[in-house]
Automatic annotation (TrEMBL):
The keyword Zinc applies. GO terms for molecular function: zinc ion binding. A zinc finger (TRAF-type) spans 112-171, 176-238. This is TRAF-type domain-containing protein. Residues 112-171, 176-238 form the TRAF-type domain. Pfam families: TRAF-mep_MATH, zf-TRAF.
Length: 485
């Protein structure tokens, strides 16, 4: 294909052709010599050595040559001539030897080459040559033959198999037909259809079914093979065989039936004998089980007597426990009456902190007592760790005063410097207690709502080495009960 290039002076009137060997041949009108303007013939546009159209033109040894044909060690300088004289010169198509009859001015040759039907182009599908000098390279054809090539001979054109209707490349059609399940193949037995010549053809995939059920020339066994007839013949001969050997088949089948009857009788007798033995064994087993049942009933009567005695003892013990419980409650009341503003604490070691922060799942501590009040710690993992205190339902709630107030202190242990623990203290205020009275009243469920610090520590700070050791932290919760308001 002809193209335009821009030279070092910024001009774009260079026309060239890429030849079959990969090199370029062309002409550039502003590099033709001035003193040849009175000899403007068509041959002036051709190199005197390679006969290619000029690209870089110069005078060498008295002839006009292109830059490719000038030796590399020769210094030369292209010279100019009148561009208009060259542009108006008449020229034939560079592909006239292939059959193109076009001729016109030099200035129009590049436009013609873009449309010239004799210009060599590569196969658009990329098929390659299988032999010759260009073996293994993409096939090149004249532009006018491309459509015919793609339709009739291109190895990469897409074809539709007329048997299975699948799309197959041209170079793969023959191998495809070798395995196509719908391709008609002759019967392996060369059977024929009545009234037609040649072997019957069936689809490749149907050959096993044809041989098993249809082919008249397929070797098959006599239906009475299981009775002893060891004849094999073509399927078409089977009817004649059954008619001719009917009496033999009858004797064979009767003999077989007698043998089976004898075998069946022996089998039934064996099963009867086995069943009789089994019945006798089961009867013996039933007698043994009956005796065991009588023994069990006797033992059960004795067990019921012992159970009644045990129930009587249990009732007596329950009465004693009830009495002791009353005494214990009295002792607790006495102890509580002598206890003022009790305090308590929980040292809570939390393991697997990194996974808990990732899962953001609330966790609760083991319950602990402050005086007779039951408490529990809670941590909510968000961007900050929120530490809260919950009042839990306890065994002494009916003896305690409600609602309650308390002050709490949270201490996060520093494993590196124990004197530099992180600590925070807070207490229940009158206003907060009035707004959230349900948190501090006597619990009716497992635990009340929580009260505490929503942003005790950020997750990043908790994971610092001084607080987090072996993926665990230690938190101390101190609680001091305050007087009622």
């Amino acid at each position: 294909m002809a193209e335009k290039l821009t030279d070092s002076e910024g001009r774009n009137d260079l026309v060239y052709i890429k030849t079959e060997d990969g090199s370029y041949r062309g002409w550039r009108v502003d590099l033709l010599v001035d003193n040849l303007s009175n000899k403007m013939e068509e041959k002036i546009l051709l190199c005197s050595s390679c006969q290619g159209m000029l690209r870089d033109a110069c005078i060498y040894e008295g002839d006009l040559k292109c830059g490719v044909c000038v030796p590399e060690d020769v210094a030369w300088q292209p010279v100019k001539m009148n561009r208009e004289i060259v542009s108006d010169k008449m020229i034939s198509c560079p592909l006239r030897k292939r059959g193109c009859e076009w001729s016109d001015r030099v200035s129009t040759v590049m436009y013609h080459l873009e449309e010239c039907e004799f210009f060599p182009v590569l196969c658009p599908l990329g098929c390659v040559c299988l032999d010759g000098e260009r073996k293994g390279e993409v096939m090149k054809l004249e532009k006018r033959r491309i459509a015919e090539h793609q339709r009739d001979s291109c190895r990469l054109r897409e074809l539709v198999c007329e048997f299975c209707m699948n799309t197959v490349k041209g170079c793969e059609m023959n191998p495809h037909l070798e395995v196509c399940e719908h391709f008609p193949v002759p019967c392996p037995n060369e059977c024929v259809i009545e009234g037609e010549e040649g072997a019957r053809h069936v689809k490749r995939r149907d050959v096993p079914v044809h041989l098993s059920n249809e082919c008249p020339q397929q070797k098959v066994e006599c239906p009475y093979w299981i009775y002893g007839c060891r004849e094999e013949m073509e399927r078409k001969e089977m009817d004649l065989h059954e008619r001719e050997f009917m009496h033999i088949h009858y004797r064979l089948s009767m003999t077989d039936m007698k043998q089976k009857h004898i075998q069946t009788s022996k089998l039934l007798q064996y099963k009867l004998d086995t069943a009789t033995e089994r019945i006798a064994f089961v009867e013996n087993e039933n007698e043994s089980k009956r005796k065991e049942l009588l023994t069990f009933k006797h033992n059960q009567i004795e067990t019921n007597v012992k159970l009644d005695r045990a129930n009587t003892k249990i009732k007596n013990l329950e009465k004693q426990i009830t009495k002791k419980d009353s005494e214990l409650k009295l002792i607790i009341e006495v102890l509580y009456s002598h206890t003022s503003l009790p305090t308590g604490q929980l040292e809570w070691k939390i393991q697997g902190v990194k996974q808990m922060i990732h899962d953001k799942e609330d966790i609760y501590s083991d319950p602990f007592y402050v005086g007779l009040y039951k408490f529990q710690g809670c941590i909510e993992w968000n961007h900050f760790a929120g530490v809260h205190i919950c009042i839990m339902k306890g065994g002494y709630d009916d003896k305690l005063h409600w609602p309650i107030r308390y002050k709490y202190t949270l201490i996060l242990f520093n494993h590196i410097n124990s004197s530099n623990n992180y600590e925070i203290t807070n207490q229940v205020t009158k206003r907060y207690m009035e707004q959230h009275s349900s948190i501090f009243k006597r619990p009716t469920e497992l635990r009340n709502g929580h009260f505490g610090t929503g942003s005790f520590f950020s997750n990043t700070e908790i994971l610092e080495a001084k607080y987090c050791k072996g993926n665990s932290i230690t938190l101390l919760i101190k609680i001091e009960l305050l007087p009622a308001l």
